[in-house]
Amino acid sequence: MGRIGEKVNTNDVYLIKPKINDKDEIENFKKEFLKNNESAIPGSSNILDFPNYEEWLKHIKAYERASTVPVKGHVPATVYILKRKSDKKILGILQIRHSLNDFLRNFGGHFGGSIRPSERNKGYSSKMITLGMKKAKRFGLDEVLITCLKTNKSSAKSIEKAGGVFEGTSYLKEKNEHINRFWLKQN
Q1: What is the pLDDT of residues 16-45, one digit of tens each?
Q2: Cβ-proximal residues to 48 (8 Å cutoff; 6+ apart), any chain
Q3: Which of 91, 89, 78, 84 is nearest to 45 (CA)?
Q4: 108: which strand partners?
């Protein structure tokens, strides 16, 4: 469906929570990351660590409420998939964290997300952020922190295109990485 970098109709997409009938398309989404030698899918709530799709769905559902978050110290979060209306292809994944703990406040932010390798640099990332801001209202988030690696120029550009204002850079000593921090406000 086009070449990487080709501009497309980003109005042909929507965010929705993953459902059981998304299984085959999610499997294709995962395979594409693995074929691209990517060992993680940011924003997916560690989907590659689960033996099957159904277990992952249970996992992300548990994270949606503070009373059922499975890992002590983690915050509630909701995972959405970015789908194209015309062919129902999953283009991206976005995790919206309902609040911030110390780590997220310094390095992770409210949003974590990925666009599948074949659909990158087409404008989908900034559109996903914009749609995510509408979803974030549901969790009472008037302002959202989004971070990316300082070396990830494409991500920074997408965040800024979606209205993100650069705040500064923090340093994650454990991974020897510099993290760019951006704030977005609700319209």
Answers
A1: 999 999 999 999 999 999 999 999 999 999
A2: 30, 33, 34, 39, 40, 41
A3: 78
A4: none
Beta-strand relationship, 143-149 and 90-97? unpaired
Residue 72 tokens read as 């002590």
Sequence-ordered alpha helix ranges (H) in the chain? 23-35, 53-62, 102-103, 124-136, 153-161
Residue 131: both structure tokens together:
């749609």
Would you place residue 5 in the very low, low, confident or very high pLDDT band (cuts 50, 70, 90)? low
Residues 166/180, Cβ–Cβ less than 8 Å: yes
Amino acid at 65: R
Query: What pLDDT, in 10s, does the model give residues 177-186?
Result: 999 999 999 9
146, 111 in Cβ contact below 8 A? yes
Tell me the residue ranges of DSSP E strands in the chain: 13-16, 77-84, 90-97, 111-115, 143-149, 165-172, 177-185
Token pair recorded at residue 180 = 């760019």
Q: In terms of residues, how long is the chain?
A: 187
The answer for residues whose C-beta is within 8 angstroms of residue 165's C-beta and 6 or more apart is: 182, 183, 184
Please state, in angstroms and rounded to a whole number, the distance separating the CA atoms of residues 32 and 28: 6
